[in-house]
Amino acid sequence: MSHWLLKSEPESYSWDDLVRDGGTEWDGVRNNAAAAHLRAMRPGDRALIYHSGKEKAAVGVAEVTRGPRKDGDEGNWVSVAIKPIAQLPHPVTLAAMKAEPALAALPMLRQSRLSVSPVGDAEWAAIERMAAR
Prior knowledge:
Blueprint: E1 3-8, H1 15-21, E2 24-26, H2 32-40, E3 46-51, E4 57-70, E5 78-93, H3 94-99, H4 107-110, E6 116-119, H5 121-132
Parallel strand pairs: 1-3
Antiparallel strand pairs: 1-6, 2-5, 3-4, 4-5
């Protein structure tokens, strides 16, 4: 199982929206690097849902329920389907992530504009520990 981080503006689509809907198509990603990460996703992978904008925090865990498929008529864009698994006990803020040495290599911190990025196993475990505090 691989781990990912999916960013969303909560005003556009939030964790609460995902829970209400019971799942969604993660589409509309129009960045080549982020789309490459979507292409690598497989059913059963887990993803942190991260609220960008004012909130700047990981707030929940979702599961990829369907791998990549074509998104739109133009370009080589893809989407995946996800469903909510659990809200994090405590949001993990961007400031907390930046202050955590175990997350120093987290791709989201190095390429902050990417809306989809991988999360390593050790980084995932560190974020789970942070969320439990």
